[in-house]
Amino acid sequence: LWFHVDAAYAGAALVCPEFRPLARGSERADSFNFNPHKMMLTNSDCSALWVADSTHLVSALSIHREYLPRVKDSTSFAKDYRDWQIPLGRRFRALKLWFVMRMYGASGIRAHIRQRVEWAKWLETQLKADGRFEIVTPVVFGLVVFRIPPSALPAGTESAANRANTELVKRMTADGRVYLLGTSLKGMNVLRPAIGSTQGTQANMDLLLEVIKEFATAVVAESD
């Protein structure tokens, strides 16, 4: 059984010591990956992968052809990464990540991530204070999952809440000032802003909250 940890979005936060306890146990994994383009200042696409024992990966994916000579010197510094994947080659994605690390350093990357988490906590506080919204899952990183709950609607039912939240996403998307997606969680239609943009500002957060409240007011008023 292969144990893989897909830390796609949250993995970048492990550069901050305060978040590392959340990954306790991942050292037992056979492989671990995360996407620096999601919260680590790197443009899309970029994925970082670690494997505990690369021989398992190589034995599963390697091919042997006469026109593909191999370097048999096991002491060579160069690794033959063509056997780590299905295609024999790939784009040089590591270069842009190297530039990010050289330009920002560990302290700069930590500051970027902590600011996004701080904004997410701010948004959580503002939505809770409004009274018309429910925070559905704990806010740990930059993801805030919320909805208009049944208690905020005249009908007071889950079906009415699902319709209202679907309509809220639809209207905000059509408006175009902010881009916000919804999803379904345990039968609930919810909204899920992910705070991670490299160019994000507090002004962006203020606008996001303003637009959410504006359209929530209209949706609640028109709800059956």
Automatic annotation (TrEMBL):
UniProt keywords, alphabetically: Decarboxylase, Lyase, Pyridoxal phosphate
GO cellular component terms, semicolon-separated: cytoplasm
Keyword Lyase: yes
Cofactor(s), names only, from the UniProt record: pyridoxal 5'-phosphate
InterPro entries tied to this protein: Aromatic_deC (IPR010977), PyrdxlP-dep_de-COase (IPR002129), PyrdxlP-dep_Trfase (IPR015424), PyrdxlP-dep_Trfase_major (IPR015421), PyrdxlP-dep_Trfase_small (IPR015422)
GO BP term, example: carboxylic acid metabolic process
Family: Belongs to the group II decarboxylase family.
Protein name (Swiss-Prot/TrEMBL): Aspartate aminotransferase family protein
Organism annotation: Coemansia biformis
